[in-house]
Amino acid sequence: MVKDVSYEIQEMSPGDVTATGFESSPSGGFWSRLHQRILIEGGEERRSNADMDPVPPEKRTWSAMDYITYWISDNFSPSGWRKAASLMQIGMSWKLALINVAVSEIIIAIVVTVNGVVGAQYRIPFSVQSRAAFGYYFSYLMIAMRMIVGIFWYGTSTYTGAECVRSMIYAIWPSFHNVKNRLPENANITTQFMVAYFIYWLSILPLHYIHISKIRFLFTLKAITLPIIGFGIMGWTIKNAGVGNNSLWTAGNTVHGTALRWVFMQGMYSNIGGWATLAINSPDFTRYSKRVRNTYTMALALPFTATLIAFFGVVGAGGSKVLWGSILWDPLLFIDNWTSRGGRAAAFFCALGFYLSQACSNISANSISAANDLNCMFPRYINIRRGQFIVSILGAWALTPWNILTSATSFLSFMSGYTVWLAPICGILVSDYYLVHNRNYNIWELYDLNGIYRYNKYGINWRAAAAFTIGWVPLLPGFLPKVNSSIHVIEGMMNLYYCGYFYGFGSSMLTYWIFCKLWPAKETMLDYPVYVDDEVLTGRDVEEGAVADSESLGEKTGSESDKM
């Protein structure tokens, strides 16, 4: 049965950010006035804001095609181009590497799509969704863990974006190759690259100002330009180098038997780990869909585009071996070899396309997601726009990504290691929505500090805490050698680690469901879902501690609603 509760909706004044919270007075001090200026719209006790509330109808702008162009633009990037390289370096042939990419992307695409339904159905972000499974306060730990990973990814993607800027500068001014390095060797970055890094970071800052509901045009632009660039590079390579006269195409696997099977699993773990954050926070952008079914296109767009761009990388690498005597997996290093007058012009436009790809991907996949988490933690002071600027400073500068990406090995370890914790989180979210609560949530209770999803006075759902622990603790021994190479564990622990996403997701999903069946939180078991009336969303805030009857909410408030 649905708990008999009542709610109160508080009007919100127009505008994005207003000076509220304290009464202003002529004698108010500087800090009082500053505090008044930085408060996000809402009262002093508010635990939500417009960016955290369910998405109103006027901001539900994403169509099925927008989600297709999103994944085309996200995958057609230098990172996607290099995806097969890491797999071939650990022993796979190019054919097996592409199969590995395809299988990995299909699996994670299903997870991304399935978890994204929550956002499309209830119009809420991951930070609010997580309260239903983990409890009001325990969810903040999950949010913090996902936010930290998003900030890390922002930094590493900024590094790749700087490579695009450097290639553009090379194409315009070849003398930039000769810029003298004035930084120490242990800085792991040169003066030349620091210049490109700063230009890239500064140039994408204005994009952080655009709201996610309006940024779709960038994905469309990328979806048109990037495939043209990819097919163009592949066509040029085939014309000038051919595809059948070098060892890359004829070489087989360099490992065999049982070792090959575990190498394959290691590759899947790394590739799935690259999307583990998006699997969790997919509601952050599916909440803006026009209809729930619009999000289903992600299940096809993600694996197809990821596999295609990885194949472009294989063709480019094979051609570079013939043309220049070395295998170049990075498309930016590839186009840096176009040194003729016309070649440099082509290199500039290719690098510009990759720059656009990296910039938009970094914003959509990393900064917006991490900003949503900051928004949840500090809703009175941080909205998504402010959060993105904070993420840009922390990710690009505080974390010094040039130290993280010193080698391909360290990048693989970083990309896969955090999956130890993210996989169980995702498994619990999926289990809670589909298996435990049968897709029935009460949207108002998710915003209520003392509502049914608090579970107890500590705000912790012990069932989720136990399932989460079961999901990651057995993987920890295999993770430690990735952090410290001096630590050695038995082979079985490493093999379990390489199966980490499957174990973490599956074990947490199953054990959470079992715990909830044996010891159900009956107050959260609803007979039907409770949504927010669209008329309310058009003119009201969703606010903690409200008092009005949910079933007649639209009737009670509709006539009083003010348009935003």
Short description:
The chain has 564 residues and is mostly helical.
Q: What structural keywords apply?
A:
mainly alpha, 564 residues, 27 helices, disordered C terminus, 2 strands, disordered N terminus, 1% strand, Permease for cytosine/purines, uracil, thiamine, allantoin-domain-containing protein
Describe this structure in words.
This protein has 564 residues and is mainly α. It has 27 helices and two strands. Helix 6 packs antiparallel against helix 7 (139-172) and helix 7 packs across helix 17 (384-398). Mean pLDDT is 86; it is low at 1-27 and 539-564.
Describe the protein's topology.
Layout: E1 6-7, H1 30-38, H2 64-75, H3 78-81, H4 83-89, H5 94-122, H6 126-134, H7 139-172, H8 191-204, H9 216-241, H10 247-250, H11 257-273, H12 276-281, H13 283-286, H14 298-324, H15 331-335, H16 341-377, H17 384-398, H18 401-404, H19 408-417, H20 419-436, H21 443-446, H22 462-472, H23 476-483, H24 491-498, H25 500-518, H26 534-539, E2 547-549, H27 553-558
Antiparallel strand pairs: 1-2
Mean of all residue-level pLDDT scores: 86
What is the chain-wise order of helices and strands?
EHHHHHHHHHHHHHHHHHHHHHHHHHHEH
Main beta-sheet strand count, sense and barrel state: 2 strands, antiparallel
The count of β-strands is: 2
Instruction: List the uncertain runs.
Output: 1-27, 539-564
- Gyration radius (Cα, Å) is 25 Å
Characterize the overall form.
globular
Helix content: 55-70%
Q: How much of the residues is beta strand, in percent?
A: under 5%
How far apart, in Å, are the first and last alpha carbons? 34 Å
